[in-house]
Amino acid sequence: MKIKLAILCPIRRKIAPGGEGTLENRIYDLAQALAGQGVDVTLFAAGGSQSPGGLVPICGKALEDDPDPSPAMVEAVALAEAFSRIREYDLVHSFSGLSAFPFAKLLGVPMVAAAPEHPLGERFAKTVHFIPLAEEGTATEFIKVYKAILAARENHRPWGHYENLAEGPDHNIKRITVAPGARLSYQKHQRRAERWVVISGEAVVTLEGEDIRLSPGDTIFIPKGAAHRMNNPGSAPLIFGEVQLGDYFGEDDIIRLQDDYGRSG
Prior knowledge:
Layout: E1 4-8, H1 23-36, E2 40-46, E3 54-59, H2 71-83, E4 91-94, H3 104-107, E5 111-114, E6 129-131, H4 139-152, E7 156-157, E8 160-168, E9 171-178, E10 186-188, E11 192-200, E12 203-207, E13 210-214, E14 219-222, E15 228-231, E16 238-246, E17 255-258
């Protein structure tokens, strides 16, 4: 699966090639090298920045180009703008320092960052994947780290990943992300029904052999025992909510009728 990476940049200066030795130059060079090795890279940076891949402006101008009497507030608003969209990516590589770390647990995607020298950094060792200095440097080394994190991620699947949002004796709620061009197995359940609501992206649901196209905001009910599958035919991640209703929600209640990844049961 192609890695969809968000690089969170500091907003003190624009990101651009040149300026050898600056952090902004190193970020640009890293993004260019990662893109050259097949990573789908998007920079979350100050307006006016340049990117070898995608670019999401998280503030109008870099702070050095538009001095503000409250730079801390500008940075906070920029982080909020970035984090409102970060869930569209597989992981985020942050160069924003300590200010980004408190939000890592809330993002729903892994955060990678250089290990901080500040003692407060130790508080976030369980929620941020700190990269040892020996592993910093080349795009190849970073890609190895990204792949290892994604492979070990809880609830990671060949088609994408999911998050458990709420559980109860008679329900379970998940937020599911399906990678572009991927689809879940064609399956059914004996002990639960499901309702799906599309949050973003393109969706084609197969229900008892019938293909049904859904758009963001659309919902569909999957009765207990009905054969069903979710497919992402688009070029962007598909995100949908799944409400499971029943008396048992274990993985062993999945009866796979067909699977693209060779899984059975």
